[in-house]
Amino acid sequence: MANLFPETEDVVWEDATEPETYEGSGAVFGRSWKFDFDAGEFVMSPTRKMAAADEKEAWVLWCEKAVRTPRYRHLIYSRDYGSELEELIGSGGRAIQESEIRRMVSETLLADARTQSVDQFVFDWEGETCRFTCRITNIRDEEAVLEGSVG
């Protein structure tokens, strides 16, 4: 049978590097493609190739996507993936909603072995819409700020 990935003088496949794992945690850091959530598409380089995200960027992208994805809606994802933030729209007072946003976002992100902590939530209300930011820290002690909204 012919090789699906033939190597000739003009085409040489680079060996993929093994992702770094952390003993006992089950955490695997790998790379991904950059994604622009506002535009709803992958980021392209000037040469029209998909731009690669490093290990930290890939983790931050995973966090943002997990918070934005409604849990239980898409069969392709496990029941552990996504958040239930949509259920908060119009329910309870602001203090209750802020408490639930803290809980739901933390549960969503801490489901991944790479995430160490989720804290320092800041809330900004515009009518019925609550915009929030929080600090996320991975097991390498790398930090990022995650933004989201409900409503």
Q: What report would you give on this structure?
A:
The protein has 2 helices and 9 strands. It is of the alpha+beta class. The protein has a single domain (29-150), classed as Nuclear Transport Factor 2, Chain: A, CATH 3.10.450. The protein has a 3-stranded antiparallel β-sheet with strand order 7-8-9, with helices on one face. It has a two-stranded antiparallel ribbon with strand order 1-2. It has a two-stranded antiparallel ribbon with strand order 3-6. A hairpin with a 6-residue loop joins strand 1 and strand 2 (28-29).
Topology:
Elements: E1 20-21, E2 28-29, E3 32-33, E4 35-36, E5 41-42, E6 52-53, H1 55-68, H2 94-110, E7 115-126, E8 129-138, E9 143-150
Antiparallel strand pairs: 1-2, 3-6, 4-5, 7-8, 8-9
**Estimated radius of gyration:** 19 Å
List unreliable stretches of 5+ residues: 11-18
Residues in β-strands, percent: 25-35%
Kindly report the average pLDDT value: 81
Distance between the termini: 56 Å
The name of the CATH topology is Nuclear Transport Factor 2, Chain: A
Element order: H for helix, E for strand = EEEEEEHHEEE
Query: What's the story with the biggest beta sheet?
Result: 3 strands, antiparallel
The number of helical elements comes to 2
| Outline type | globular
Strand order of the largest sheet: 7-8-9
Protein name: DUF2634 domain-containing protein
Pfam families: Sheath_initiator
